[in-house]
Automatic annotation (TrEMBL), chain A:
UniProt main location, coarse: nucleus
Protein name: General transcription factor IIH subunit 4
Key words, A-Z: DNA damage, DNA repair, Nucleus, Transcription, Transcription regulation
Gene Ontology biological process terms from the UniProt entry: nucleotide-excision repair; transcription by RNA polymerase II
Entry-linked InterPro entries: Tfb2_C, TFIIH_p52/Tfb2
Taxon lineage: Eukaryota, Metazoa, Chordata, Craniata, Vertebrata
Protein purpose: Component of the general transcription and DNA repair factor IIH (TFIIH) core complex, which is involved in general and transcription-coupled nucleotide excision repair (NER) of damaged DNA and, when complexed to CAK, in RNA transcription by RNA polymerase II. In NER, TFIIH acts by opening DNA around the lesion to allow the excision of the damaged oligonucleotide and its replacement by a new DNA fragment. In transcription, TFIIH has an essential role in transcription initiation.
UniProt cross-references to Pfam families, sorted A to Z: Tfb2 (PF03849), Tfb2_C (PF18307)
Assembly and oligomerization: Component of the 7-subunit TFIIH core complex composed of XPB/ERCC3, XPD/ERCC2, GTF2H1, GTF2H2, GTF2H3, GTF2H4 and GTF2H5, which is active in NER. The core complex associates with the 3-subunit CDK-activating kinase (CAK) module composed of CCNH/cyclin H, CDK7 and MNAT1 to form the 10-subunit holoenzyme (holo-TFIIH) active in transcription.
Similarity-based family: Belongs to the TFB2 family.
Transcription factor Tfb2 C-terminal domain mapped to chain residues: 362-429
Subcellular locations according to the entry: Nucleus
Alphabetized GO MF terms: ATPase activator activity; double-stranded DNA binding
From TrEMBL, chain B:
Pfam families xrefs: Tfb4
Lineage: Eukaryota, Metazoa, Chordata, Craniata, Vertebrata
Domain of life: Eukaryota
Family designation: Belongs to the TFB4 family.
Protein name listed in UniProt: General transcription factor IIH subunit 3
Origin species: Amphiprion ocellaris (Clown anemonefish)
Cellular component, GO, one term: transcription factor TFIIH core complex
């Protein structure tokens, strides 16, 4: 039975913690990075950093511990570990011999620069370039970004689309697709899980994989990361020197993985991650109505449901036991299906609580559990004992070694783990030579 | 699963009464209006740096009117003309440098162009707060008032109305007082659930702002912050605007007066007074002694 590999979507902080201290220090040399890392901190930690930002001397640890109320001591400890793990502050001995905290000086200077100025510009300014003749507006940027992203996703699903060799290679290395020698790559179970994530998560996972390969290809990790963070702070659609236009996707990249993509209260101009509004309606009779034209979205829905009808603007599908179990056999989990449906839920669905009918979510999980009725454990079978006493002696020995998996006293049968098998076998041989 | 970031608006109301600031310049040269505004800008920048969805507004409260320093009406988002001006060459986050430049320019306009009538040190705080309330209609917002001049009892009514409106809309009002204590602001902070602080050292304004007023209401529940001050809850009478402890209340419209008057000036109800009746002294029956 194939073991299911869970797709790990790390967020910015976990990724940074894995980097070595020297790289981190070099990374913090840029105001954009400091600001991005700062924004991802838990809110209490942000306050801590702000308080210490303009202090040049270390603060006693006892004083810092007094900043929180007694009920929030746990939050305080969490902040301390987060800030320490990212090397944003470290302990330093004060004059009185007490331990104090002081902010990482590189980080402190650069965060101050980001807030107050007084440093060098972030990117070369192209002020000699004249007014922009090719100014793109936000909508066309959005469309362009989504188109390019969908091309990649469609390539993964298997519909024919042109994707650069580099990209295909990256997908294979990321474990999202597998390629047999000479044949076109096909998608793996991890790839299925990737497809069902929301766009922000997909982007982030993709970028992380790219960064991992970047190191092996000799590109400077620090430069790439700094560039990424800078990009994320540019305003949507503004021109930068050398005329590239940050798209919304790029901006939301550093905004982390877990921004929910279903905030449709978009009266205000600069709204969060998602570009497409929700379009899926799920009914309690297991029918799914997807109001979309996009081939990719239809293909995604078809991964775990049976297509019934297709109209110019709607696709009707049905969630059946077979379709869901087939999806699960391909490596998708029930949680991912539910997450997919929830993040793309139509605004009408969002108005009701719970968003998806509980019958549907429960049933999907039950279908998944149906496949889990059997649990396989490897073992070695001992049977055909000549007497009850022999059986009991051996059984007790195995229990003593903690490797007895199962026993049937009436039939004198027992199962031992493979690791314990050699030990039990030796014991049995000694036993037999005695009697 | 992280809760999606909500939009959080911080409105900073700065008291720019020129008479008070002029006197202040003679009292203490270390802390001038421009230093105060520097501190305000640091506070604003920090607020916007905290989260992508945080927003800022700055209003200057003058003697007779109030002006928006940021966002100002002449600035349109996405304006290409502003692009060259905004790209900061000094490493400041672009959004912040745009905001700071605008604030600096507007305050210069306000101080040089606004006329000063009369000699009073009053500032039109109630009106400014009303404008601030209009901003934060559907989004989570809070107001921080930086008060310099003294209270004006004339504004009592409007002020209380503004405070109750803020309470209804769940908008916190914080107060950072530079000079003399303000009973009105103490009441405002107490009723809406905000923080009131009179700063011991004016030059350290930025540090006080960052330490005490930067955290929002959720974060405040975790931090240890200055305790609420004793609040002066005396009402002001409607006829003279004096603060009184005991007074007369109209039973129809609940307006407060210090002296009795037969007709209520607010709702014009006439009160019929009954003169106390003459009580005939009862003849005491003498106990008959036996």
């Amino acid at each position: 039975m194939k073991l299911r590999v869970q797709l790990q979507c790390k967020n910015l902080h976990e990724y940074l913690r894995e980097l070595s201290p020297e790289i981190l220090d070099r990374l913090y040399n840029h105001p954009a990075t400091c600001l991005a890392v700062y924004r991802e901190l838990p809110s209490l930690a942000k306050n801590y950093v702000m308080r210490m930002l303009f202090l040049d001397q270390p603060l006693p640890q006892a004083a810092v511990a007094l900043w929180v109320k007694k009920d929030s001591q746990k939050d305080h400890d969490e902040c301390v570990s987060v800030l320490g793990g990212l090397r944003l502050w470290h302990s330093q001995q004060l004059q009185g011999g007490l331990q104090g905290y002081i902010l990482n000086p590189v980080f402190k200077d650069n965060l101050r620069t980001a807030l107050l100025g007084g440093g060098t510009a972030w990117a070369e300014e192209g002020s000699t370039l004249g007014p922009d003749r090719h100014a793109r507006d936000i909508e066309s940027l959005d469309r362009y970004a989504m188109e390019r992203w969908e091309v990649i996703l469609q390539f993964m699903v298997g519909s024919p689309s042109a994707v650069s060799q580099d990209l295909a290679h990256l997908l294979v290395q990321a474990g999202l697709m597998k390629s047999e020698a000479g044949e076109a790559p096909y998608i793996t179970s991890a790839g299925f899980q990737f497809l069902l994530l929301d766009t922000a998560s997909q982007l982030w996972y993709f970028t992380l994989q790219y960064l991992k390969t970047a190191q092996s290809r000799g590109m400077d990790l620090v430069e790439i990361l700094s560039f990424l963070f800078q990009l994320s702070f540019s305003t949507l659609g503004r021109r930068k020197s050398r005329r590239y236009y940050p798209t919304r996707l790029a901006i939301t990249l550093a905004a982390g993985v877990t921004t929910s993509s279903s905030t449709t209260s978009s009266n205000l101009a600069s709204t969060p991650a998602t570009v497409e509004a929700g379009f899926i309606v799920v009914e309690t009779n297991y029918r799914i109505y997807a109001y979309t034209n996009s081939e990719l979205q239809i293909a995604l829905v078809a991964l775990f449901s049976e297509m019934l009808y297709r109209f110019p603007n709607v696709v009707v599908a049905q969630l059946t036991r077979e379709s869901v179990q087939q999806a699960i056999a391909n490596g998708i989990t029930a949680q991912q299906i539910i997450h997919f449906l929830r993040t793309r839920a139509h605004p009408v669905m969002l108005a009701q609580t719970p968003v998806l009918p509980s019958t549907i979510t429960d049933q999907i999980r039950l279908w998944e559990l149906e496949r889990d009725r059997l649990q396989f454990t490897e073992g070695v079978l001992y049977n055909q004992f000549l007497s009850q006493a022999d059986f009991e002696v051996l059984r007790d020995r195995a229990q003593g070694l903690d490797c007895l998996v199962w026993q049937d006293v009436a039939h004198r049968v027992m199962v031992v783990t493979p690791q314990g098998h050699s030990e039990v076998k030796r014991f049995w041989k000694r036993q037999r030579s005695h009697t | 699963f992280k809760v999606p970031d909500e939009i959080s608006l911080l409105v900073i109301v700065v008291d720019v009464n020129p008479i008070w600031w002029g006197q202040q310049a003679q009292r203490e040269q270390e802390f001038t209006l421009s230093k105060c505004l520097d501190a305000v800008m640091v506070m604003g920048n920090s607020h916007m740096a905290m989260s992508r969805t945080n927003k800022l507004a700055v209003i200057a409260s003058h003697c007779q009117d109030s002006h928006f320093l940021y966002p100002s009406k002449s600035w349109k988002a996405g304006d290409d003309g502003a692009d060259d001006a905004s790209s900061s060459g000094d490493g400041k986050y672009e959004l912040l440098s745009v905001a700071n430049n605008l604030i600096a320019e507007e305050i210069r306009n306000v101080m040089s162009k606004t006329e000063v009538r009369g000699n009073s040190t009053d500032t039109l705080l109630a009106g400014t707060l009303a404008k601030a309330l209009c901003l934060g209609q559907e989004i989570k917002s809070r107001i921080l008032v930086i008060k310099a001049a003294e209270d004006c009892a004339l504004q009592y009514m409007n002020f209380m109305n503004v405070i109750f409106a803020a309470q209804k809309q769940n908008i916190l009002i914080d107060a950072c007082v530079l000079d003399s204590n303000s009973g009105l602001l103490q009441q405002a902070c107490d009723i809406t659930g905000g923080l009131y602080l009179k700063i011991p050292q004016q030059v350290a304004l930025a540090q006080y702002l960052l330490w005490v007023f930067l955290p929002d209401s959720e974060q405040r529940s975790q931090l240890v912050l200055p305790p609420p001050a004793h609040v002066d809850y005396r009402a002001a009478c409607f006829c003279h605007r004096n603060l009184i402890e005991i007074g007369y209340v109209c039973s129809v419209c609940l307006s407060i007066f210090c002296n009795f008057s037969p007709i209520c000036t607010t709702c014009e109800t006439a009160f019929k007074i009954q003169l106390p009746q003459m009580v005939k002294p009862k003849k005491k029956k003498l106990k008959q002694t036996t």
